[in-house]
């Protein structure tokens, strides 16, 4: 077994990466309060919301299925960690921002993920407002992952 040296630019938070997108990704990795992303896929994945919630049948933490939104990087590849869609308010915001009613209609749509608050804790939320591009005075939402900071042409 050989040891591998980390790239000196590796953020310390990546030494033990999270399975899902976190507040620290926006604050520490990209130094933003919000970002615009393009949805590439939605999956239903096993999660353990509360490790102390023990399932009596298995004597292990209760596992539930929850939706996860994945989005594109600047190169068009999916970002490796998805947004855990665990709050009903985010589902309502997703519907409002995209005007979609089905999972298929959401794919390829752009949304804003921002840092909100829940019970005095920073949390990630989906904005109910769709991303906009003003024509003259710059751009409303800074895109870090989803691609260029320029509006789409055409």
What would you say this structure looks like, in words?
The chain has 154 residues and is of the alpha+beta class. It has a domain at 18-43 and 69-126. It is 14% helix and 28% strand. The chain has 3 helices and 7 strands, in the order H-E-E-E-E-E-H-H-E-E. Strands 5-4-1-6-7 form a 5-stranded antiparallel sheet. The chain has a two-stranded antiparallel ribbon with strand order 2-3. The chain is globular and about 50 Å long. The termini are far apart.
What features would you highlight for this structure?
154 residues, alpha+beta, 7 strands, 14% helix, globular
Distance separating the two termini? 53 Å
| Poorly predicted ranges | 134-154
Count of β-strands: 7
How would a textbook summarize the main sheet? 5 strands, antiparallel
The average pLDDT value, as a whole number, equals 84
Q: What share of the residues lie within helices?
A: 10-25%
SSE string, helices as H and strands as E: HEEEEEHHEE
How much beta, percentage-wise? 25-35%
| Neighbour order of strands in the largest sheet | 5-4-1-6-7
* Computed structural class: alpha+beta
Q: Please work out how many helical segments DSSP would assign.
A: 3
For this structure, the quaternary state is: single chain
Overall radius of gyration: 17 Å
Bulk shape: globular
How do the strands and helices of this protein lay out in sequence?
Layout: H1 23-29, E1 34-47, E2 54-55, E3 60-61, E4 64-71, E5 83-84, H2 88-98, H3 103-106, E6 110-118, E7 121-126
Antiparallel strand pairs: 1-4, 1-6, 2-3, 4-5, 6-7
């Amino acid at each position: 077994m050989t040891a591998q040296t980390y790239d000196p630019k590796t953020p310390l938070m990546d030494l033990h990466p999270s399975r899902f997108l976190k507040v620290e990704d926006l604050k520490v990795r990209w130094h933003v309060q919000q970002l615009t992303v393009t949805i590439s896929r939605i999956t239903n994945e096993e999660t353990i919301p509360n490790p102390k919630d023990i399932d009596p049948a298995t004597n292990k933490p209760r596992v539930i299925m929850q939706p996860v939104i994945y989005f594109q990087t600047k190169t068009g590849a999916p970002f490796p960690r998805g947004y855990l869609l665990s709050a009903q308010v985010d589902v309502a915001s997703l519907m409002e921002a995209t005007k979609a009613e089905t999972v298929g209609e959401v794919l390829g749509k752009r949304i804003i993920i921002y840092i909100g608050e829940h019970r005095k804790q920073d949390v990630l939320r989906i904005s109910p407002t769709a991303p906009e591009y003003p024509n003259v005075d710059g751009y409303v939402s800074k895109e870090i992952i989803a691609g260029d900071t320029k509006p789409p042409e055409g």
